[in-house]
Specification:
- The chain has 319 residues and is α+β, with helices and mostly antiparallel strands.
- Helices cover 45% and strands 22% of the residues.
- It has seven helices and 13 strands.
- The chain has a six-stranded antiparallel beta barrel. A four-stranded antiparallel β-sheet has the order 2-8-7-4, with no helix packed on it. Strands 3-5-6 form a three-stranded antiparallel β-sheet, with no helix packed on it.
- α2 packs antiparallel against α5 and α3 runs antiparallel to α4.
- The chain is rod-shaped.
Length: 319
C-alpha cells in the first residue's frame, strides 16, 4: 500500500470515528405536505364522484355524493313534527279561543238544566212515595240520577273556570321545550343530509379515491384522500447532539437531490420526546443515537413532489 493512500485512509477513519462519537450535524427525512383523509358518515351507496385522482380542488367543492333519499325522508318527518310543535306553542300562548269558552258555557247550562230537572223529578216522586204510589227502589234510582247531574255540573263549572283563567305557565313552558327539541332534531338531520356530500375542507389535490360508484362505505371509512395545498415542509429526525443546539424558529438549509442550491427553511416544530428511547440506562454512546422528530418549513418548494428524500442543515448548529 502506498504511503499517500495509507494516510488518506487513516484520515477518513478518524473522521468517521469522530462522527460516530458526536453524531451527524445534519438531519435527513422526506418532503411532505399535510394529508387529509375524508370519511363517510353514512352507509348509503355512492351516487356520484365528480372529481378524479390528481384533480386540484378548492375549499367547499363536492368530491363525492351518497344517496340522500333516506336522510331527506327523516328530515321531512322532523320538519312536520317541528311544525306541530310550533302550532302547539302558539295555541298554549294564545290560550283558549272564544268558541271553546262558549262551548264550555253551553255544557254548564246543560248540566244545570239536568240538575233542575232531576231535582224536580225527585221531589215529585218523594211526595208520591208518602202517599204509597212509588216504591223505595224508584226513589233510590232518582236520587242517583240527581247526584250524577250535580257532579256533571261541578265538572262543567271547573272546566269553564280553567278556560277563563287561560293556559298555565308550566304548560306553555313544556310547549316551548318541545319546540326547542323539535328544532334541534331538524338541525341535526339537516347537518346529516349535508354530509351525504363530501366536500373539500381546503384547497388541495385529490390523492386517492378508495371507493367506487354504487359502493356502500361503512361510517368512518375513508372515501377521499386529499393532499393539502398548504405549506411544504421537511419531516426530519434530529440526532441528539444536534437537537440540543436547535429551537423552533431557527433557520435551515434543505438540500434535495438534483438541485444544486439549497432551499431556505425554518424549524416550525420539534418533538419533546425522542423517537427512540432504549429501555436501559443511556451511556454516552447510546445518547448520540437518540433522534427527535422535527418539521422544517421549506420555501420555494411548491413545485416539488412529496415523499422525496431531503437533507436539512442548520446554520445555528456547531460545525
Amino acid at each position: 500500500m502506498k504511503p499517500t493512500r495509507s494516510l488518506w485512509l487513516i484520515a477518513l477513519a478518524s473522521l468517521l470515528a469522530g462522527c460516530a462519537r458526536e453524531g451527524p450535524l445534519y438531519a435527513v427525512g422526506t418532503l411532505e405536505r399535510d394529508r387529509i383523509e375524508l370519511a363517510a358518515e353514512s352507509a348509503e351507496p355512492v351516487l356520484e364522484i365528480p372529481v378524479e385522482e390528481g384533480a386540484k380542488v378548492t375549499a367547499g367543492q363536492v368530491l363525492l355524493v351518497q344517496d340522500p333519499t333516506r336522510a331527506e325522508a327523516r328530515l321531512a318527518q322532523a320538519r312536520a313534527a317541528r311544525d306541530e310543535a310550533v302550532a302547539a306553542l302558539a295555541e298554549a300562548v294564545a290560550g283558549p279561543r272564544a268558541q271553546q269558552i262558549a262551548q264550555a258555557e253551553a255544557r254548564l247550562a246543560a248540566a244545570r238544566s239536568a240538575v233542575l230537572t232531576t231535582g224536580h223529578e225527585l221531589r215529585r216522586e218523594r211526595a208520591l212515595r208518602q202517599q204509597g204510589f212509588v216504591s223505595e227502589n224508584r226513589l233510590d234510582v232518582l236520587e242517583g240520577l240527581h247526584q250524577e247531574a250535580l257532579a256533571r255540573q261541578r265538572e262543567a263549572e271547573a272546566a269553564l273556570d280553567e278556560l277563563r283563567e287561560g293556559t298555565r305557565s308550566e304548560v306553555v313552558q313544556r310547549a316551548r321545550e318541545a319546540l326547542a327539541g323539535a328544532e334541534a332534531r331538524v338541525r341535526e338531520l339537516e347537518i346529516a343530509l349535508e354530509r351525504h356530500s363530501v366536500r373539500a375542507p381546503m384547497d388541495g389535490t385529490v390523492e386517492a379515491l378508495p371507493v367506487e360508484l354504487g359502493e356502500r362505505p361503512t361510517p368512518g371509512q375513508t372515501v377521499v384522500v386529499l393532499r393539502a395545498r398548504g405549506p411544504t415542509y421537511a419531516r426530519v429526525h434530529l440526532p441528539q447532539p444536534l437537537r440540543v443546539h436547535l429551537n423552533v424558529g431557527d433557520p435551515a438549509e434543505v438540500r434535495v437531490d438534483g438541485r444544486d442550491a439549497p432551499l431556505p427553511g425554518r424549524i416550525r416544530w420539534i418533538a419533546s420526546e425522542a423517537a427512540f428511547t432504549p429501555y436501559f440506562a443511556l451511556t454516552q454512546r447510546d445518547r448520540s443515537r437518540l433522534a427527535y422528530l422535527a418539521e422544517v418549513l421549506v420555501e420555494e418548494a411548491e413545485a416539488l413532489p412529496v415523499g422525496i428524500p431531503v437533507e436539512a442543515r442548520f446554520p445555528a448548529s456547531p460545525r
